């Protein structure tokens, strides 16, 4: 699966930018609060408008300090998957249950420096694990290949039936890095600059999907 991130899109033309990636599996929307991360993007009112503008399932990545308060609102608005950061969530189990009760999939994200092991049991409550392969906050950064160890660990836990979730990776995914991420066992690839930095975003999505299959 490919999930283009609109962080690298033209924010003055978001409806057109969504139309350009029609046929993508998900569209990835980065919510940043200038507190959990040193950048500010958009929030629920914009997500609500984007949901009206597209039928692509929306993957909301909440890089915010108080997801316990805000996450369920994105599920109620109609997001397909809502991801919170383990470093920010006070009660991740409750968040996951609230998200699912509101009809969304529940996602948990871990920053590059955060170990996976302490959270393996917690992952039973979640539908997706978003492994960050850059420090969250900005598009266009270089891929941190070390995080692929976490991907391999969770892939193994899924393949042996210990966990049931989708493995997603976010940050620095492009034509040079997607194959190693695919080999490590990623199911869903977020790509911002590699899609919206291309002259034809739709073709860039198709090319990435093809390359992930190789
Ligand atoms: C970074 C965001 C990413 C970002 C990825 O904090 O979570 O989703 O858009 O951008 P690229 O693909 O350019 O690294
Ligand atoms: Zn993201």
UniProtKB/TrEMBL annotation:
Keyword Transmembrane helix carried by entry: no
Gene (UniProt): rpe
Pfam families: Ribul_P_3_epim
Keywords, alphabetical: Carbohydrate metabolism, Cobalt, Isomerase, Manganese, Metal-binding, Zinc
Signal peptide region: none
Family: Belongs to the ribulose-phosphate 3-epimerase family.
InterPro entries according to UniProt: Aldolase_TIM, Ribul_P_3_epim, Ribul_P_3_epim-like, RibuloseP-bd_barrel
Protein name in UniProt: Ribulose-phosphate 3-epimerase
HAMAP family: RPE (MF_02227)
Entry's EC annotation: 5.1.3.1
Role of this protein: Catalyzes the reversible epimerization of D-ribulose 5-phosphate to D-xylulose 5-phosphate.
One GO-annotated biological process of the protein: pentose catabolic process
Residues reported in the UniProt entry to bind substrate: 5, 61, 137-140, 170-172, 192-193
UniProt enzyme class: isomerase
Gene Ontology molecular-function annotations: D-ribulose-phosphate 3-epimerase activity; metal ion binding
Catalytic activity: D-ribulose 5-phosphate = D-xylulose 5-phosphate
